Amino acid sequence: MVKQGLRWLLSRLFRVRLNGIDNYHKAGERVLIVANHTSYLDPILLWVFLPDDVTFAINTQIARQWWVRPGLWFSKVFPMDPMQPLSIKALTHYVKEGRKAAIFPEGRITVTGALMKIYEGAGLIADKAGARVLPVRIDGAQYTPVSRLRGVVRQRWFPPISINILPPQAIDLPPESHGHDRRHLAGFLLSDIMSDMVFETGNHRQTLFAALLDARKIHGGGHVLLEDVQRKPLNYNRLIAQILALGEKLAAETEAGETVGLLLPNLNSTVAALFGLQIHGRVPAMLNFSTGVKQMASALTTAQIKTLVTARRFVENAKLEDTVATLATQARILYLEDLAAGIGKQDKLRALATAFTAETWYARQAHRPGADDPAVVLFTSGSEGEPKGVVLSHQNLLANREQLAARLDLNARDTILNALPMFHAFGLTAGTLLPLLNGMYTFLYPSPLHYRIIPEVAYEINATLLFGTNTFLAGYAKHAHPYDFYSVRYVFAGAEKLQADTRKLWADKFGLRILEGYGATETSPILSANTPMFYKEGTVGRFMPGVQWRLEPVAGVEGGGRLHVAGPNIMLGYLKPERPGELQPPASVFGVGWYDTGDIVHVDEEGFVTILGRVKRFAKIGGEMVSLGVIEELAARLWPGHLHAAVTVPDEKKGERIVLASQAKDAHRNALAKEAQRLGYTELYQPKAVRILKELPLLPTGKVDYPTLTAQIRADEVEA
C-alpha cells in the first residue's frame, strides 16, 4: 500500500518514466543492480518503481541517519561497511543464493553531475556471485534540491525523471586472473558498464538545434554561455534569437539541401550561421582558410558549394582579399555585414519572440533535418593531394559529445577557452558544440597561434578547460606566466603526438597533467582519451563508449595492428575530388560502416591505446618495418624543446633510408645512434643522416607537414 501510494505521488510530481522493464525480467534471479547516484531520492525511486522486493545494500553509517530509518521499515536492506572486506563477502553470498540486490557503485551522491569513481568491490561481488549485472540510469533527479549539485546545475522542484534499465551483462574475467589483479579488472569492467550506460541513455538521436533547445530547458534561457573577442556575451535566449534571425536571411539566399560554405573565424556569428543554416535544411561546410586558395577552390568544387558566407572585416584582417576574389569566380559571396544590415528592428523583435517558443516553431519547419542527415562538411588538410570532404551527421556529432560526457566530469561551472578553429573537428565538437550543449561558458578566440595572448585570456576569463595540439600547448607554456592557468582543471591534447618535454613543462610550470587523446575528422573526431580516472602516460587513453574496434595484422609489425573502427560517431562518408558531390560511405576490410584509420596501434589488457604510427609513417628497410615516430621520440629525448621529423628517401640497396630533420643545432647522428643502442633498438632505428633546419614546415593544425618536408629533403639529396 505504501509503495503504491508513493508510486502514484512520484509519478505525478516528477512525471517518472520507467524504460526497459523487459531487461529487468530478462536478468533472471541472481542479479546485481548497479545504478548511478544522483540524489537522496535514488533509493526511493528504485524501491518504488522496480518490480519485486529488491534488497538494497546501504552504508551502515547512512543507515543510522534519522531521516533514513523510516525507509528501512518498508524495504529490505543489507547494511554494509565499505571498509570491511567481510561485508563484501557477506553480500556476495547473499546474491549467490539467487537474490536481487541493488547497489550504488560510486559509493556517494555525485557532486559533479557526472559519474564519480566506481568502487571495485561491486564488480568483485558480481564476479564472485556469478550474478548478472543490471545497469540502471537515473536521470533528472540531479536537478532537484535533494541532490548535491547546488551551484553546479540549475535546481528546481519536480523536474521530469527517467529510470532507464539497460540489458543485463555478465562480468567475464579471464580464468588465469587472481587476487588483486582480478579485483582491479572487475572494477575496470564495471566502470565500462557504467559509462556505457550513461552514453547509451543519452539522446544523440536528434538534431543539433533540438539538443540546443534541450540544453536551454536544463540551464535556463538566461544562462550566459558564449562570448568572443568582441566581448558581447550571449545567453541561450539571445543565441537562439540570433540563429533564427540570421537563419532566415541565409535561407532566403540559398536553396533547401544546398551545401553552403562558411569562411569565418571563431566568432559568435559563426555559431549562429552554423545553426542558422541547419535549421532550414542547409548544410554548412567549414572552409580551412589557412590552406591557401588552391585548396579552398578544390573544396568548393568537391562539395559543390555555390554560395560562400564570410565577413569583410575578417577578410581584411586576414588579408584574404585576393583569395576571396578568386573564390568569387566559383561561388557567390555573401557577407555577414550585408546580411546583418538586412535584419531590421522588427526582424530582431520577431526572432526574440520566436526564440521563447522555438520548440513549437522548429517542429513545424518543412525542411527540418533528421538525426541521420548531414550536419556539417569538414575538409581534410589536403597535405597528400586535394582535400576530401568529410560529411558528419547530427547523430555523429551528438554521439561524440555524449561519449565525452560519459567519461568526463564536465558541468555548467566550467569555462572553456577555445582557440582551435571550427574548421578543425576538435575545435568544432570539443571546443564549441560540447560546451554549448552542456551549459558551459565558452570564449571563442580567433587564432591558436597567439602564444602570448592566449595565456592572458585564460587568466582573465578564469578558464577551467583548454584544448590544443602539442605544438600549440608548447607555445603557450613557453610564454605564459606560471599563474596564468591557475583556474584550469583539465588540459586536453590531440591531433598530434604529445611530446614528453611538453608534458613535463606543463607539469613543472603549472602543476597540470595533460590528458592526451586520439581521433580523426572522420570520427567526429574523438576515439579515445586519457581521463582523470583512467590515465596512462604515453598512451592516448581508452576507447570512448560505443566505439567498436578491430586490428588488422600488418606484416613486420609485432604487438599491434592497423586500427579499424565503427560506431555512431563514424562519418556518413567522403566527398572526393574525383566524384564531386557524391557521398561515399565508409568501408574497410571489415565491412561497410567501418573506417580504416590508417594508424597502427597497440591495445593493452586494460584497453589503453598506444599509437605506434601511421601506416605511411613506417619505413620498410630490408624487409623490416621501422616506425619513424620512434626515431622522433629518440630525438626528443636527446634534444627536448625542439621539433624533429623523420622522413624517408629512396635507397638502391635497401629500398629506403631514414633522414632526421631537426631544429636542434647540436643534433648529431652519433648521439642518436648511442641513444638507440642504449634503449635496445636495432641499427635500423639509426637514421643515415641528420639535417639541421631553422624551421620545419607545419600544417595549420600545428602538425609537421611531412609531404612538404619529404619533398624538400629529397630535392636536397638530388642536388647533393
Protein architecture, described:
One of its GO terms (molecular function) is ligase activity. Keywords: Acyltransferase, Ligase, Transferase. InterPro entries: AMP-bd_C_sf, AMP-binding_CS, AMP-dep_synth/lig_dom, ANL_N_sf, ATP-dep_AMP-bd_enzyme, Plipid/glycerol_acylTrfase. 36% of the residues lie in helices and 23% in strands. By secondary structure, it is an alpha/beta fold. It has three domains: 2-200, Glycerol-3-phosphate (1)-acyltransferase (3-Layer(aba) Sandwich); 208-546 and 575-597, 3-Layer(aba) Sandwich (Rossmann fold); 611-719, ANL, C-terminal domain (GMP Synthetase, Chain A, domain 3), CATH 3.30.300.30. The chain is globular and about 90 Å long.
